[in-house]
Write a structure and sequence with these properties.
This protein is α+β, with helices and mostly antiparallel strands and 129 residues long. It is 28% helix and 29% strand.
Length: 129
């Protein structure tokens, strides 16, 4: 896995512009901040933590680890809330993914399929051969 950064561009904050990887691909569908019984965590930071834990669990089931993730797509219902809690969210992220920053996208959406969900995250991992 190699981070791709165009010459002269400023270093991205908390993500990579691109990742170059070879191997088997694991596509993780959008995960939300609920537990195995379908109970949602309260608040954005808690939902992001549970969402990322769910992604880690799916990765493990597929034989992957967080460091194999090459892309995360974040869908949130309130980007202002995300920005206001960025430090807390960063700490939660680093606790689960370390300082591994794949290519990421974060967008605000009107709603998610699960009415109580504040965030949904998709992941793509590439496991080395």
């Amino acid at each position: 896995m190699k981070i791709v950064q165009p010459a002269g561009w400023p270093a991205p904050k908390g993500f990579s512009n691109a990742i170059l990887a070879e191997g088997r691909t694991l596509w993780v569908a959008g995960q939300v901040g609920w537990d195995a019984q379908g109970n949602f965590a309260s608040g954005l930071v808690a939902q992001i933590e549970l969402t990322l834990k769910n992604i880690v669990a799916v990765l493990a089931a597929g034989g992957a680890k967080p460091e194999h993730v090459v892309r995360l797509d974040w869908y949130m219902t309130d980007l202002a809330d995300y920005r206001a809690k960025a430090r807390e969210i960063g700490a939660v992220y680093r606790a689960l993914f370390g300082r591994h920053y794949p290519a990421m996208t974060a967008v605000e959406v009107v709603a998610l399929v699960e009415p109580k969900a504040l965030v949904e995250i998709e992941a793509t991992a590439v496991l080395p051969e």
